[in-house]
Protein: YqfO family protein
Organism: Oceanimonas pelagia
Amino acid sequence: MYKLVFFVPESHAEAVKQAVFATGAGKIGDYDQCCFETRGRGQFRPLAGANPFIGQTGELERVEELRIELVCEDHLIQQALDALRAAHPYEEPAYDVWPLAGL
């Protein structure tokens, strides 16, 4: 089992979550589409060669985003990551994947 955490602008959160959920990620027992959301502010500066969805090359940008956390079974993690990347508006979405101990 893995914990998948990703950061997405609030305007695109539902679309990205639904794409990830469609892979089967976010299931806990008899419940699906389970996640936890935290509001925050992300920052980044697009470098030369970037094609930013938000902001301008060379300028620091701050964006209100959601941190989405969910669990994902081992055999689904690659599909979930592919869906995340395909649905996310950023060309380089920020995410973390952590293996969970099977206690």
The chain is about 20% helix and 35% strand.
